[in-house]
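Renewal narrative, Specific Aim 1. Our central claim is that a sequence can be written position by position from structural information alone. The example that follows is taken directly from our test logs and has not been curated for this report. It begins with the C-alpha coordinates describing the chain, in the order in which they were read.
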Protein backbone atom coordinates (compact mmCIF):
# COMPACT_ATOMS: atom_id res chain seq x y z
CA UNK A 1 0.00 0.00 0.00
CA UNK A 2 1.80 3.11 -1.16
CA UNK A 3 1.50 6.69 -0.04
CA UNK A 4 3.09 9.75 -1.52
CA UNK A 5 6.05 11.42 0.10
CA UNK A 6 5.70 13.50 3.21
CA UNK A 7 4.68 16.98 2.08
CA UNK A 8 4.87 18.99 5.27
CA UNK A 9 7.31 18.64 8.12
CA UNK A 10 7.44 20.88 11.16
CA UNK A 11 10.07 20.97 13.85
CA UNK A 12 9.95 22.31 17.38
CA UNK A 13 9.81 26.08 17.05
CA UNK A 14 11.64 28.55 19.25
CA UNK A 15 9.04 31.16 18.26
CA UNK A 16 6.27 29.58 20.35
CA UNK A 17 5.94 31.41 23.64
CA UNK A 18 5.60 28.45 25.98
CA UNK A 19 5.99 24.99 24.49
CA UNK A 20 5.12 22.15 26.85
CA UNK A 21 8.20 20.05 27.54
CA UNK A 22 7.68 18.88 31.14
CA UNK A 23 5.60 15.73 30.63
CA UNK A 24 6.48 12.12 31.24
CA UNK A 25 7.88 11.26 27.83
CA UNK A 26 8.54 7.56 28.28
CA UNK A 27 8.11 5.84 24.94
CA UNK A 28 7.40 9.01 23.00
CA UNK A 29 8.42 8.86 19.31
CA UNK A 30 11.10 11.16 17.92
CA UNK A 31 8.69 12.20 15.16
CA UNK A 32 5.20 11.53 13.88
CA UNK A 33 3.22 11.66 10.64
CA UNK A 34 -0.52 12.10 10.17
CA UNK A 35 -2.31 10.56 7.18
CA UNK A 36 -4.52 13.15 5.45
CA UNK A 37 -5.81 12.97 1.85
CA UNK A 38 -5.19 14.77 -1.44
CA UNK A 39 -4.02 18.35 -1.81
CA UNK A 40 -6.87 20.80 -2.42
CA UNK A 41 -9.03 19.07 0.18
CA UNK A 42 -9.76 19.94 3.78
CA UNK A 43 -7.98 16.90 5.25
CA UNK A 44 -4.60 18.02 3.93
CA UNK A 45 -5.04 21.64 5.06
CA UNK A 46 -6.36 20.63 8.48
CA UNK A 47 -3.95 17.73 9.02
CA UNK A 48 -0.77 19.53 8.00
CA UNK A 49 -1.65 22.60 10.07
CA UNK A 50 -2.53 20.47 13.08
CA UNK A 51 0.71 18.46 12.78
CA UNK A 52 2.71 21.71 12.75
CA UNK A 53 0.77 22.97 15.78
CA UNK A 54 1.48 19.81 17.76
CA UNK A 55 5.14 19.77 16.74
CA UNK A 56 5.68 23.37 17.78
CA UNK A 57 4.12 22.89 21.20
CA UNK A 58 5.31 19.41 22.16
CA UNK A 59 8.79 19.53 20.68
CA UNK A 60 8.38 16.44 18.50
CA UNK A 61 8.95 16.85 14.79
CA UNK A 62 5.87 16.01 12.76
CA UNK A 63 4.15 16.47 9.45
CA UNK A 64 1.38 15.42 7.12
CA UNK A 65 1.39 12.77 4.43
CA UNK A 66 -0.77 12.76 1.31
CA UNK A 67 -2.85 9.57 1.18
CA UNK A 68 -5.98 8.26 -0.50
CA UNK A 69 -8.08 9.50 2.42
CA UNK A 70 -10.09 7.86 5.23
CA UNK A 71 -10.07 4.25 4.03
CA UNK A 72 -6.33 4.21 3.42
CA UNK A 73 -5.68 6.14 6.63
CA UNK A 74 -7.54 3.46 8.59
CA UNK A 75 -5.33 0.77 7.04
CA UNK A 76 -2.09 2.69 7.54
CA UNK A 77 -2.83 3.52 11.19
CA UNK A 78 -4.01 -0.04 11.93
CA UNK A 79 -0.77 -1.53 10.60
CA UNK A 80 1.36 1.13 12.28
CA UNK A 81 2.77 2.45 8.99
CA UNK A 82 1.42 5.78 10.20
CA UNK A 83 0.74 6.58 13.85
CA UNK A 84 -1.98 9.18 13.27
CA UNK A 85 -4.68 9.71 10.67
CA UNK A 86 -7.99 11.36 9.87
CA UNK A 87 -11.14 9.42 9.04
CA UNK A 88 -14.89 9.71 8.66
CA UNK A 89 -17.22 7.45 10.61
CA UNK A 90 -18.57 5.58 7.57
CA UNK A 91 -15.21 4.35 6.25
CA UNK A 92 -14.14 3.87 9.86
CA UNK A 93 -17.01 1.46 10.51
CA UNK A 94 -16.47 -0.46 7.26
CA UNK A 95 -12.76 -0.83 8.01
CA UNK A 96 -13.36 -1.93 11.60
CA UNK A 97 -15.80 -4.59 10.38
CA UNK A 98 -13.38 -5.93 7.76
CA UNK A 99 -15.26 -4.48 4.79
CA UNK A 100 -12.59 -2.11 3.47
CA UNK A 101 -12.10 -2.51 -0.30
CA UNK A 102 -8.36 -1.99 0.32
CA UNK A 103 -8.05 -5.12 2.47
CA UNK A 104 -11.24 -7.22 2.38
CA UNK A 105 -11.63 -9.37 5.46
CA UNK A 106 -9.04 -7.51 7.55
CA UNK A 107 -10.68 -6.11 10.69
CA UNK A 108 -8.78 -2.89 11.34
CA UNK A 109 -9.30 -2.85 15.08
CA UNK A 110 -5.99 -1.37 16.24
CA UNK A 111 -7.24 2.14 15.51
CA UNK A 112 -8.40 4.38 18.37
CA UNK A 113 -10.33 7.65 18.45
CA UNK A 114 -8.54 10.75 19.69
CA UNK A 115 -10.80 13.81 19.20
CA UNK A 116 -13.73 15.06 17.08
CA UNK A 117 -12.88 17.14 14.01
CA UNK A 118 -15.91 18.33 12.04
CA UNK A 119 -18.72 17.20 9.80
CA UNK A 120 -18.06 16.39 6.14
CA UNK A 121 -20.86 17.73 3.93
CA UNK A 122 -21.57 16.01 0.61
CA UNK A 123 -22.11 18.71 -2.01
CA UNK A 124 -22.11 19.01 -5.78
CA UNK A 125 -20.33 21.72 -7.79
CA UNK A 126 -20.78 22.50 -11.48
CA UNK A 127 -19.85 25.40 -13.75
CA UNK A 128 -22.63 27.98 -13.97
CA UNK A 129 -22.29 27.79 -17.75
CA UNK A 130 -23.39 24.14 -17.63
CA UNK A 131 -26.92 25.08 -16.64
CA UNK A 132 -26.83 22.44 -13.88
CA UNK A 133 -28.56 23.94 -10.83
CA UNK A 134 -29.94 20.77 -9.22
CA UNK A 135 -28.98 17.10 -8.95
CA UNK A 136 -31.90 16.27 -11.23
CA UNK A 137 -30.31 18.50 -13.90
CA UNK A 138 -27.20 16.31 -14.18
CA UNK A 139 -27.43 14.89 -17.72
CA UNK A 140 -27.50 11.19 -18.44
CA UNK A 141 -23.94 9.85 -18.75
CA UNK A 142 -22.32 12.94 -17.20
CA UNK A 143 -18.73 12.58 -16.03
CA UNK A 144 -18.54 13.13 -12.29
CA UNK A 145 -15.35 13.53 -10.26
CA UNK A 146 -15.58 11.75 -6.92
CA UNK A 147 -12.20 12.58 -5.42
CA UNK A 148 -9.32 10.19 -4.72
CA UNK A 149 -10.04 6.47 -4.99
CA UNK A 150 -11.04 5.13 -1.58
CA UNK A 151 -11.90 8.57 -0.18
CA UNK A 152 -15.14 9.25 1.70
CA UNK A 153 -16.62 10.84 -1.39
CA UNK A 154 -15.53 8.00 -3.66
CA UNK A 155 -16.87 5.41 -1.19
CA UNK A 156 -20.33 6.92 -0.69
CA UNK A 157 -21.17 9.59 -3.26
CA UNK A 158 -21.43 7.24 -6.28
CA UNK A 159 -23.90 5.10 -4.35
CA UNK A 160 -25.83 8.20 -3.34
CA UNK A 161 -26.02 9.36 -6.95
CA UNK A 162 -27.25 5.94 -8.04
CA UNK A 163 -29.88 6.05 -5.30
CA UNK A 164 -31.05 9.40 -6.69
CA UNK A 165 -31.28 7.96 -10.20
CA UNK A 166 -28.24 9.69 -11.69
CA UNK A 167 -26.47 7.80 -14.50
CA UNK A 168 -22.82 8.84 -14.70
CA UNK A 169 -19.26 8.08 -15.73
CA UNK A 170 -16.90 7.93 -12.76
CA UNK A 171 -13.65 9.93 -12.52
CA UNK A 172 -11.11 9.88 -9.68
CA UNK A 173 -8.33 12.28 -8.82
CA UNK A 174 -7.20 14.82 -6.24
CA UNK A 175 -9.62 17.63 -5.46
CA UNK A 176 -7.26 20.18 -7.01
CA UNK A 177 -6.94 18.12 -10.19
CA UNK A 178 -10.69 17.55 -10.48
CA UNK A 179 -11.35 21.25 -9.92
CA UNK A 180 -9.00 22.01 -12.83
CA UNK A 181 -10.73 19.42 -15.02
CA UNK A 182 -14.11 20.95 -14.22
CA UNK A 183 -12.87 24.41 -15.10
CA UNK A 184 -11.42 23.11 -18.37
CA UNK A 185 -14.67 21.36 -19.32
CA UNK A 186 -13.16 17.87 -19.10
CA UNK A 187 -15.73 16.71 -16.54
CA UNK A 188 -19.30 17.88 -15.88
CA UNK A 189 -19.60 17.82 -12.09
CA UNK A 190 -17.46 17.38 -8.98
CA UNK A 191 -19.08 15.57 -6.05
CA UNK A 192 -17.19 16.93 -3.06
CA UNK A 193 -17.12 15.43 0.42
CA UNK A 194 -14.86 17.53 2.64
CA UNK A 195 -14.98 19.98 5.50
CA UNK A 196 -16.09 23.46 4.56
CA UNK A 197 -14.89 25.68 3.10
CA UNK A 198 -13.26 23.23 0.68
CA UNK A 199 -10.03 24.83 -0.60
CA UNK A 200 -10.59 23.56 -4.16
CA UNK A 201 -14.10 25.05 -4.29
CA UNK A 202 -12.91 28.38 -2.89
CA UNK A 203 -10.20 28.43 -5.55
CA UNK A 204 -12.66 27.54 -8.30
CA UNK A 205 -15.09 30.33 -7.53
CA UNK A 206 -12.26 32.87 -7.62
CA UNK A 207 -11.43 31.77 -11.16
CA UNK A 208 -14.86 31.10 -12.67
CA UNK A 209 -18.60 31.09 -11.97
CA UNK A 210 -19.84 27.94 -10.26
CA UNK A 211 -23.08 26.54 -8.91
CA UNK A 212 -22.89 24.86 -5.50
CA UNK A 213 -25.81 22.48 -5.54
CA UNK A 214 -27.84 21.27 -2.56
CA UNK A 215 -30.53 18.63 -2.14
CA UNK A 216 -34.31 18.86 -2.20
CA UNK A 217 -36.38 17.67 0.77
CA UNK A 218 -37.11 14.39 -1.01
CA UNK A 219 -33.47 13.84 -2.03
CA UNK A 220 -32.17 14.52 1.48
CA UNK A 221 -34.70 12.14 3.03
CA UNK A 222 -33.88 9.39 0.54
CA UNK A 223 -30.16 9.67 1.29
CA UNK A 224 -30.49 9.85 5.08
CA UNK A 225 -32.79 6.81 4.97
CA UNK A 226 -30.19 4.76 3.10
CA UNK A 227 -26.76 5.95 4.33
CA UNK A 228 -24.97 6.67 7.66
CA UNK A 229 -25.37 10.43 7.28
CA UNK A 230 -27.51 13.23 8.68
CA UNK A 231 -28.93 16.41 7.18
CA UNK A 232 -26.60 19.40 7.17
CA UNK A 233 -26.87 23.03 6.07
CA UNK A 234 -23.95 24.82 4.40
CA UNK A 235 -24.22 28.47 5.55
CA UNK A 236 -24.52 31.01 2.74
CA UNK A 237 -21.45 32.80 4.13
CA UNK A 238 -19.26 29.77 3.37
CA UNK A 239 -18.84 30.55 -0.34
CA UNK A 240 -19.30 33.69 -2.37
CA UNK A 241 -21.29 31.63 -4.89
CA UNK A 242 -24.07 30.91 -2.36
CA UNK A 243 -26.84 33.46 -1.91
CA UNK A 244 -28.76 31.28 0.58
CA UNK A 245 -28.01 28.27 2.81
CA UNK A 246 -27.62 24.97 0.98
CA UNK A 247 -29.15 21.80 2.44
CA UNK A 248 -26.99 18.68 1.98
CA UNK A 249 -26.01 15.64 4.10
CA UNK A 250 -22.91 15.09 6.19
CA UNK A 251 -20.76 12.54 8.05
CA UNK A 252 -18.56 13.13 11.12
CA UNK A 253 -14.74 13.06 11.06
CA UNK A 254 -12.42 12.08 13.90
CA UNK A 255 -8.68 12.17 14.40
CA UNK A 256 -7.40 8.67 15.13
CA UNK A 257 -4.23 7.08 16.44
CA UNK A 258 -2.64 3.66 16.50
CA UNK A 259 -3.84 2.13 19.76
CA UNK A 260 -0.26 1.20 20.77
CA UNK A 261 0.92 4.81 21.01
CA UNK A 262 2.01 5.92 24.52
CA UNK A 263 -0.86 7.10 26.71
CA UNK A 264 0.99 10.21 27.90
CA UNK A 265 1.76 11.33 24.33
CA UNK A 266 -1.84 10.96 23.16
CA UNK A 267 -3.07 12.66 26.34
CA UNK A 268 -0.90 15.73 25.72
CA UNK A 269 -1.92 15.94 22.06
CA UNK A 270 -5.61 15.68 22.96
CA UNK A 271 -5.22 18.27 25.72
CA UNK A 272 -3.42 20.68 23.41
CA UNK A 273 -5.98 20.30 20.62
CA UNK A 274 -9.13 20.41 22.74
CA UNK A 275 -7.99 23.34 24.90
CA UNK A 276 -6.87 25.65 22.08
CA UNK A 277 -9.79 25.74 19.66
CA UNK A 278 -9.07 29.32 18.62
CA UNK A 279 -5.66 28.21 17.35
CA UNK A 280 -7.25 25.24 15.55
CA UNK A 281 -9.78 27.53 13.83
CA UNK A 282 -6.88 29.65 12.58
CA UNK A 283 -5.63 26.48 10.83
CA UNK A 284 -8.99 25.77 9.18
CA UNK A 285 -12.47 27.17 9.81
CA UNK A 286 -13.92 23.65 9.91
CA UNK A 287 -12.21 23.30 13.30
CA UNK A 288 -15.00 25.38 14.82
CA UNK A 289 -16.54 21.96 15.49
CA UNK A 290 -13.30 20.45 16.85
CA UNK A 291 -14.57 20.93 20.38
CA UNK A 292 -14.87 18.41 23.21
CA UNK A 293 -18.67 18.66 23.31
CA UNK A 294 -18.74 16.69 20.05
CA UNK A 295 -16.93 13.67 21.49
CA UNK A 296 -20.21 11.73 21.52
CA UNK A 297 -20.39 11.78 17.71
CA UNK A 298 -18.01 8.82 17.75
CA UNK A 299 -20.05 5.63 17.83
CA UNK A 300 -17.54 3.54 15.85
CA UNK A 301 -13.95 3.60 17.14
CA UNK A 302 -12.73 2.59 20.61
CA UNK A 303 -11.09 5.47 22.47
CA UNK A 304 -7.37 5.62 23.10
CA UNK A 305 -6.69 5.57 26.88
CA UNK A 306 -4.75 8.84 26.66
CA UNK A 307 -7.57 10.66 24.89
CA UNK A 308 -10.22 9.12 27.15
CA UNK A 309 -8.28 10.27 30.23
CA UNK A 310 -8.40 13.90 29.09
CA UNK A 311 -12.12 13.77 28.30
CA UNK A 312 -12.98 12.05 31.59
CA UNK A 313 -10.88 14.54 33.57
CA UNK A 314 -12.79 17.39 31.97
CA UNK A 315 -16.34 16.19 32.51
CA UNK A 316 -16.97 14.29 29.25
CA UNK A 317 -17.72 10.74 30.32
CA UNK A 318 -16.27 7.89 28.28
CA UNK A 319 -17.16 4.52 29.77
CA UNK A 320 -14.41 1.97 30.36
CA UNK A 321 -16.09 -0.43 27.91
CA UNK A 322 -15.45 2.08 25.11
CA UNK A 323 -11.74 2.45 25.83
CA UNK A 324 -9.22 0.16 24.11
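The sequence written for that structure reads:
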Amino acid sequence: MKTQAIMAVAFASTLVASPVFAQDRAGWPDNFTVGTASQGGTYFAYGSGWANFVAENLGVSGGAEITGGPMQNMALVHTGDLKFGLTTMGPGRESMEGNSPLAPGMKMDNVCAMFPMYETPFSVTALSSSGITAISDIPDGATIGFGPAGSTSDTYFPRMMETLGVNFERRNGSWSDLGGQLQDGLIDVVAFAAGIPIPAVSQLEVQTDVNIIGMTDAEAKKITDNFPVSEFTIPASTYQSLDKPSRVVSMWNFAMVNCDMPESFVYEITKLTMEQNERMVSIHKAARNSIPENYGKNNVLPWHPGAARWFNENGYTIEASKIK
